[in-house]
Amino acid sequence: MKIFVLSVFYIAFFIFQPFFWGFYAHSLINRLAVFALPPELISFYKPHIQYITEKAVNPDRRRYAVIGEAEKHYIDLDHYSDSLPVYWNEAVEKYGEDSLRANGIGPWAAYFTFLNLTKAMQEKNQTAILRLSADLGHYLADLNVPLHTTKNYNGQLTGQEGIHGFWESRIPEIQATDYSLWIGKAEYVDKPQQAIWEAVYHAHHQVDSVLLIERTLSEEFPPDQKFSFEERNRLTVRVYSREFSEAYAIKLDGMIERQMKRSIKLIADFWYTAWINAGQPDLKGLEAMGMEEEALEEGNLKVRDH
Known about the structure:
Strand 1 (227-232) and strand 2 form a beta hairpin. The chain has one domain (23-74, 107-277): Orthogonal Bundle (P1 Nuclease), CATH 1.10.575.10. Helix 8 (106-122) runs antiparallel to helix 9 (126-142) and helix 9 runs antiparallel to helix 15. The chain has a two-stranded antiparallel sheet. The model is unreliable at 1-20, 289-300 and 302-306 (pLDDT under 50). The protein contains 15 helices and 2 strands. It is mainly alpha-helical. The chain is globular, with a radius of gyration of 19 Å.
């Protein structure tokens, strides 16, 4: 399990603004993905949009309670000197399952969830469809975050502790209402596994910029301007100042907005593709099977190679 190295000043802040895009961003991403679906699907998803929105953060809630959950949110690409196989069985054969899990299995976990969603749609299992849709949205969004693809996930290797939550929680919290996040209509994905890996590598190519820009900007801001204090849940906590946050976002040249849009598009495409692969079942008017939380997963991964 990945343990985040935080300075004492950030602990209170990240209790309320967790990693992995933050509650606000994850919920917004899942919600907006619904509106990209075709009429046959939006007629099913929209009545449950509140569930899809709120349950977008369920995988984060499970990550410390369920063995094997935390490793589903990331992959340390820079751990590997050779290229990683797309297919799980081939990757296990090359590196060993323990090694893969120790360095994150995000892409394979997302694909496994996609397969389960397809099966749930075939079976017209409303409860499973909604739960797996929310989970899949979370995993795919995580893989579009550059810092989810590197060992230096929180800047702990470069003296930049806190950059993870800064990039994916603090800045969206301040700026997302001004983002243009319409992504058009969902499209069918011919090669889902390859599409996931393309998203991961696209995010990973931005890691250097994420870190370098923050380091360079930090040299221009004295500590009393880089940080400020805000009240959250009746606690005064230390956060990155709005001035520093906005300056960083400008230097990133819209990166966070673009990655949010890529997340929304990928999620909508994968929901739509699962439905197509399931045979385009009529999901309208499914009998409610109970929206209570199902038992927590054991965290086992059995990914099929197709």
